[in-house]
Design goal:
Length: 457
């Protein structure tokens, strides 16, 4: 029932091209005037309806801050009208002035379902979600709609947004896990019959032995996961099954899904400290993957039209990651304040977040540990340097260099940092001496050879 651009009448194709140009110029009123007759004549042209609703939102002030009406704007829907005619009336008389009107979008959903047009019905609920992000009732309806129409990946995303809006919504948390599981089954092509045929001769003891073997093949893990998903669907409160499924997803490289189920396992046993740490580590891995992905995209195509959005998303992921890492590190320190290793981790988390003043006391505590002393001194020097306290940074780097008797990777790193600080302080001769120490041991270290040899020119 969805109509593509190529299927439009030529006159509407020409109008659509004009609408796209108007959208690029942000002439929203023109976009509305050009798209409205297209969607009125072509109920199934969803791309047009999406652009129309977006333009209406911009023209009326957008979803943020706008007060939305809950009536039908004076329109009295008639059951005698044909569905297409009723939709056209709402587009002209309601949505043009109030695109996120709750009752009108509910009516659009009902009409679309009667027309057996689930994509249009989903669009109506998505419009409510955009205009009323606090309305979790309709978001639940949207997620259930996606599940009923075999789109579990979209349902999982909606459930995730509900949890963001209301972290105590246990129904949404469970829905997100179920949708993620269904999505995996759908993507991997695991049907109930196939799974039973593949695993019918396997006993539980044999399966557990398979899981403990690090050398399982991809096919063995996929078969094992298929059975575990079936067991999970039968009993979603069994933490052993949930943890096993999480482990298998992680081994298969599906870290986002693995994290989702580890998080769920933690709700089943909130006191499991080892599981808490596992969730922390895996969440960091997931964010690290996303950061690397964005960095690759930005480096590959720095002039892409959406490059600024990607940079903003990358910065936000880094901010969120730093916030979570600091919170988790502080919790571990609070539980065991005398552990110098945990102090160092917290100091490092503060440093990575650019909170150099907060990092200093933690690293000074860690410095008293013989095993962490050099690492802590090096990090302290970097904190002082970032705060432009170059004399204190110099003292820290020199202290570490004196204690390191072997020219290993750590000493090279310390000397390199010392050389940079000395150069900032204007002591070029001392900076060069530090670089020469590295040069004598490792000609290829960073840019040391170039800096040393250029000093003889």
């Amino acid at each position: 029932m969805i109509v593509q651009e190529a299927e439009l009448d030529p006159k509407y194709q020409a109008l659509w091209k004009k609408a796209l140009i108007s959208a690029e110029r942000k002439n929203w009123d023109y976009v509305i005037d050009q798209v409205l007759p297209i969607v009125t004549a072509n109920v199934g042209f969803l791309d047009g309806r999406k652009l129309l609703r977006s333009a209406e939102g911009e023209a009326t002030g957008g979803s943020g801050g706008k007060k939305f009406s809950f009536g039908l704007g004076g329109l009295k829907p008639s059951s005698k009208k044909e569905p297409a005619e009723a939709i056209a009336d709402m587009e002209e008389n309601v949505f043009r002035k109030d695109p996120f009107n709750l009752n009108a979008n509910e009516q659009l959903y009902d009409i679309a379902m009667k027309m057996n047009f689930p994509d249009l019905a989903a669009f109506a609920l998505e419009t409510i979600r955009a205009g009323h992000p606090e309305n979790t009732k309709h978001m639940h309806k949207l997620a259930q709609h996606y599940m009923a129409h075999k789109q579990p990946e979209l349902a999982a995303e909606v459930y995730r947004l509900i949890v963001v809006a209301n972290p105590r919504d246990m129904e949404a948390m469970k829905g997100e896990k179920d949708a993620a599981a269904q999505s995996s089954i759908k993507n991997q092509g695991w049907g109930s019959a196939n799974f039973k045929d593949a695993m019918k001769d396997s006993g539980e003891a044999a399966k557990l032995e398979m899981l403990s073997r690090q050398g399982m093949t991809q096919e063995q893990m996929e078969q094992f996961l298929a059975e575990t998903i079936e067991q999970y669907n039968a009993n979603q409160g069994d933490i052993v099954i949930v943890k096993r499924m999480s482990d298998l997803y992680e081994r298969l490289g599906q870290l986002d899904t693995a994290l989702m189920f580890y998080d769920y396992a933690l709700t089943l046993n909130t006191g499991d400290v080892a599981l808490q740490r596992k969730v922390e580590i895996l969440r960091d891995k997931v964010q690290e993957q996303k950061i690397a992905e964005y960095e690759r995209e930005i480096e590959t195509d720095p002039d892409a039209p959406d490059i600024e959005d990607k940079r903003a998303q990358l910065a936000e992921i880094r901010r969120q990651r730093a916030s979570v890492v600091i919170s988790e590190a502080k919790t571990r320190v609070d539980r065991n304040p005398t552990d110098k290793g945990l102090r160092y981790e917290l100091g490092q988390a503060y440093f990575n977040a650019g909170m150099y003043g907060e990092a200093l006391p933690e690293l000074q505590q860690a410095k008293s540990s013989p095993n962490l002393r050099i690492k802590a001194i090096l990090m302290l020097g970097r904190c002082f340097e970032r705060k432009n306290m170059n004399d204190l940074a110099k003292t820290s780097f020199m202290e570490a260099a004196k204690e390191l008797l072997i020219m290993d990777a750590t000493k090279k790193e310390v000397l390199y940092e010392l050389a940079n600080v000395l150069e900032k302080m204007g002591d070029k001769a001392a900076s060069l001496d530090a670089l020469k120490e590295i040069y004598n041991a490792d000609y290829g270290y960073r840019d040391v050879a170039k800096r040393v040899e250029s000093s003889y020119s």
